[in-house]
Specification:
Length: about 400
């Protein structure tokens, strides 16, 4: 029997953040797909195998979980170059979109084909059988609506196949993915776990455990505000909202195109312009460095006001809250705007993570800790039952 491999996958609106096996094995892929044909042309005279597979993910995905089965896609960086590339739409449910599953399966398949995993997943005539124990998550709103159970049932009990077509190094390999176990966690709860536990699942933030806190997780399509008290997430008071940064990023992208005639490939390019250390809020127009501060400031300040309103409303209903932590990729984008609003208005006790990677990878890290905890408890339980039997 093929050994099950630990996978923690955060299917974020901007990109997929995944951890496999241990904390050092990370994968980050833009969450963009484009339908394609089997014989996509390879541009350039160099050999296909000399290129980075992550720049040429070209796959056929077969799964009973998909509404549209057996379709060929460009994924990630390759998809950004397509005219028909799609990103998740505001208002859509992550658990019900084919794109969520395509990205999940493609990410797992990329892990399965890597050379260092050859012993773990034996290859037989270019077919790899890969078993995973998966920790992932959904926005709080979807979990409260019970969509986590349906999402999980799509994954377990079936074989999901990813066939690499014109992909560097992996062309012609098929990966059959099975899930031994799937745990779907609410995103706000996951953020709390990440705040209080280290990578070895030991409590590191004892001061935080018994405090009343809020965690505002701003994503691409949604915002979750987890209410933590008595070491638990208060499911009744925690709230999920259909408000993320995607629409604002799309608006910025459109206004840059309209005003400056510059076409950005994806929302991720917009995030890069807003958050990079050098030349922040600047683009190149006909070879000249040009500020887009007027566009980004106006649109992001408007969104920050809406996010601040959410904070104010939830805090009013949980008046004994001591601190609110802002996490997620959206928090990184809106950080300075929310801080300015707070300084000028209510002056809540709020905190952001200065390490942008820590904020962006918080969900994937949390899913890894939670799934590792589940696996360790399961192993202890089975060891005990074996002892009783003998």
């Amino acid at each position: 029997m093929t050994k099950s491999r630990i996978a923690a996958v955060d299917v974020g609106n901007d990109s997929i953040k995944a951890i496999f096996g241990d904390f050092d094995n990370e994968l980050n892929i833009p969450n963009i797909v484009a339908r394609d044909t089997e014989d996509r042309p390879v541009i350039g005279i160099e050999e296909l195998d000399s290129k980075d597979p992550l720049d040429g993910i070209h796959v056929r995905v077969h799964s009973p979980a998909l509404k549209e089965n057996n379709v060929i896609y460009r994924v990630g960086n390759l998809a950004t170059k397509s005219d028909n590339a799609t990103e998740l739409d505001p208002g859509s449910s992550k658990s019900e979109e084919d794109q969520t599953l395509i990205m999940l399966f493609a990410t797992l398949a990329l892990d399965a084909v890597k050379d260092e995993n050859g012993k773990l997943f034996p290859k037989n005539k270019n077919v790899i059988d890969a078993n995973y124990t998966l920790g992932t998550g959904l926005p709080l709103r979807e979990v409260k609506e019970g969509k986590d159970a349906g999402y999980r049932s799509k994954l377990v009990g079936s074989v999901h196949q990813v066939e690499f077509l014109v992909t560097p190094k992996y062309q012609g390999i098929k990966v059959n993915i099975k899930f031994d176990e799937v745990k779907v966690y609410p995103e706000g709860f996951a953020a709390y776990i990440n705040l209080v536990m280290d990578n070895s699942l030991k409590i590191i933030n004892k001061d935080l455990i018994d405090r009343r806190i809020l965690i505002q997780d701003i994503g691409g399509l949604s915002t979750d505000i987890a209410v933590i008290k008595n070491r638990n997430v208060d499911d009744d008071k925690a709230q999920g909202f259909n408000l993320g940064v995607s629409e604002a990023l799309e608006q910025i992208r459109e206004e840059i195109r309209s005003k400056h005639g510059v076409e950005l490939d994806s929302r991720r390019d917009v995030v890069e312009i807003i958050t990079r250390k050098n030349d922040r809020n600047h683009i190149m127009v006909k070879g000249s460095r040009t500020s887009v501060h007027d566009i980004t400031d106006r649109i992001l300040l408007e969104l920050a006001k809406k996010q601040y309103r959410l904070l104010r409303n939830v805090w009013a209903k949980n008046s004994q809250t001591e601190i609110c932590y802002f996490v997620g990729g959206g928090a990184t984008v809106l950080k300075e705007y929310i801080k300015t609003l707070n300084n000028n208005l209510d002056g809540y006790n709020i905190e952001f993570f200065e390490d942008e990677k820590e904020s962006i990878w918080m969900m994937a890290n949390a899913y890894y800790k939670l799934i590792m905890d589940f696996v360790k408890k399961s192993e202890k339980s089975s060891a005990k039952s074996e002892t009783v039997k003998s």
